[in-house]
Amino acid sequence: MDTMRDKPIKFSSSVFCLIILLSVYNSTAELRRLVQPPKSDSTLSFLVVGDWGRRGSYNQSQVARQMGKTGMNLNIDFVISTGDNFYDDGITSPYDCQFQDSFTNIYTAPSLQKPWYNVLGNHDYRGNVDAQISPILKDLDCRWVCLRSYVVNADIVDIFFIDTTPFVDKYFDEPKDHVYDWSGVLPRNKYLNNLLALERLEHPVTKSDGSLNILVVGDWGRQGCFNQSLVAHQMGIVGEQLDIDYVISVGDNFYDDGLKGDTDPAFEASFSHIYTHPSLQKQWYSVLGNHDYRGNVSAQLSHVLTQKDWRWFCRRSFVLCSGMVELFFVDTNPFVEQYFTDPEDHTYDWSNVLPRDRYISNLLHDLDLAMKKSRATWKFVVGHHGIKTAGEHGVTQELVDQLLPILEENKVDVYMNGHDHCLQHIGSDGGIQFLTSGGGSKAWRGVILPWDPKELKLYYDGQGFMSLHITHSQAKFIYYDISGNGAVEEKKQRMVVLGIQSLNWHVHGGFMEKKKKHLNGIVRATERDDSPPSSSSSSQRFEIDRDKARQALKQLDQQIESQADEKPRTFVKTSSDVVRTSSGGSSSMDPFMFEEPPEMSGSFLTTTAFLLLAFTLFYNILFFTVIKPSMDGPESVPADTIIAMSDSELVQFPLSSSPKKNF
After folding, report:
1. Better pLDDT: 523 or 117
2. What does it catalyze (predicted)?
3. Which domain holds residue 404?
């Protein structure tokens, strides 16, 4: 008897060590978590048993009696079952008498009337798997808990239950005369990836050309206030024009302190009742922001919200596969040291994040592994906090030190974030592009920090959102302001002109059209007249002033002639050239600059040749895009594609390019 008693103890110890080992490597997976409180002295005792469902035969009843005695001596808290719960072929339905005959009527000792946490074995997969994980069994016997994979949080220890059966090749390749129930498992690779590397989702591409159109918005959950409803209205219009596939939310979904629970009315008031346009009735993929962590995080991740509004999908970290694109959603909040060391008067919900170091380490490991496995044409990363930003929050050093090296090593194309009070684009040619879309309903303007003009492509301190148009050869990003001013695309020249408007000033800035072989960027800026626009002017088409076009050519000729005899120098257009008019009518300078490319140095012959080539290219572009259309008159344009723009003066900056990038 002593020998028999020793064996279960050794077995339970080994299984316990295995489960603890698994917890180290899989704590970032979004598994369902169950809470099991320990004793008042913070200790736990439990039994472990497996391969038992024999209707009492093969000594099952004798083992059950000994378990009852040991359970009473140890005052156990629960029992763990490691699978093969019902021989030989599982159960056929939740009402199969095998459940009563092999479980309820066998483990009858008082000490065993505690929760039983079960996983599935290979014999269970030969029956009806859904029957074993059905809540009906818990109704029949309240002790029964069975899921494919989940976590039991017992305060002093997390116990990870892993569904190992689908890992075994022979059950698929050589099942012999057995029939396995693989419903809920196929496709197998996707199931296993979700269980291990990060959760992986697939959003099918529906357009015949394989392209994707996506809207991106962040910092929005204001129950319709602070212009959230206005931005939502413009998102609906743009979403309809672009025929979007889905929406990405970059966090701070519910101000000021997240959701209180999955029944919090703020969910409907800030989401379901705001984004009502038909074009926005698409899937929303969301990450958490710091304001969300001030509430009940589990509530935002809950399936209850999805039942209330099917569009809602929110996880801490996951991978979204969409044709040629893979988007890696990353929980950046635990990286920020300040939230832990200096939370001010805020309370953050760090459940399932602590210990923090292990959480971050596992997340980075899984992210790196997922990126290395990726064969996607485009790799985008989505997080709440900016890595590089000229906005109020500046650079997040923790992400620069820990996350950025992984993104660079894996040649990530774009990092998108919210958090800041602006829309902006930062990126050196050929490197990672940093895009901020944090103006969904910001209550105040932020601070513009000084930034390298070679990197700061665009900065707009106002509310709005962003669109993405992605094909195999290019990814185009367009910012929209609160009035929905969008982009005009001239496909022949493959360039994008982009309209950004605030209540007090306005910028038409070209963003970027990133290509696989070449990257072209055009930046344009305009100054807005201090006088308010009339109602009639708001509907005017964009037209070219012939006199200004001729004047621009004349100035260009004079500039080239003068530069031929001068030493190379750098021209910088500083904030004094871009005037921002406040609501009070006084002007102030914004600390952002646009820098023109430096001139070539070298011998007089080389410089002259370069200038002639540049002038020829520039003149041809200007002639076909400005002068000729102005002489020929405007082309007929469908009314629904006309964008209203101001007729204020254009200041055009030269076309910039970067070296070819091989993918």
Report:
1. 117
2. a phosphate monoester + H2O = an alcohol + phosphate
3. 200-493
